[in-house]
Amino acid sequence: MSDARVAVEGQTLDGSNIAFGDGRAMDGEFSAGAQAVVVDLLTKRYGDLEAVRGLTFSVAAGETVGFLGPNGAGKSTLIKMWLGLLAPASGGASVLGRDTATDSARIRAAVGYMPEHDCLPPDVSATAFVAHMARTNGLPTAAGRVRTAAIP
């Protein structure tokens, strides 16, 4: 990424940085140059461990973001806070113009997230997991089953 820029006021615990590069224009309500992600002094603690410390940055629509750092650097924790799956200890963020603390369901409806490793417990089928996630995200059980059955 020769034309990438690093723009970090805060850093993860181990000092990892966040790199930005050029990307394709984002579809939807955001135009090139609009702030798709805004993070303001975001901090997450697990007991005494500070996984993300005072991170502040923004990502314009159309930019591609890469998170660089070793295991335990806070990359997945940051993404989970963006999706409203984890609450920060302090600070805040918005994704696609929506506050992660108050509008996480709408954020998750608009953003795809694929974890690095398989997330299925060995005794759960893929269809059962999809139906569970549908319920978790507010879809009524019957509607979740119908939509799960429609997956090819």
What does this structure look like?
This protein is an alpha+beta fold and 152 residues long. It has four helices and eight strands; from the N terminus they run ββββββαββααα. It has helices at residues 75-82, 104-110, 126-136, 141-149, and strands spanning 5-6, 11-12, 18-22, 35-46, 49-60, 63-67, 90-95, 98-99. The strands form two sheets. It has a five-stranded antiparallel beta sheet, with helices on one face. The protein has a three-stranded antiparallel beta sheet with strand order 1-3-6, with no helix packed on it. Helix 3 (126-136) packs antiparallel against helix 4 (141-149). The longest helix is centred in the C-terminal third of the chain and has 11 residues, at 126-136.
The radius of gyration is: 17 Å
Class of secondary structure makeup: alpha+beta
User: Helix count, per DSSP?
Assistant: 4
Give the amount of beta strand, in percent.
25-35%
Question: In summary, what is this structure?
Answer:
This protein has 152 residues and is α+β, with helices and mostly antiparallel strands.
Please give a handful of descriptors for the protein shown.
alpha+beta, disordered N terminus, globular, five-stranded antiparallel sheet, 152 residues, 23% helix, three-stranded antiparallel sheet
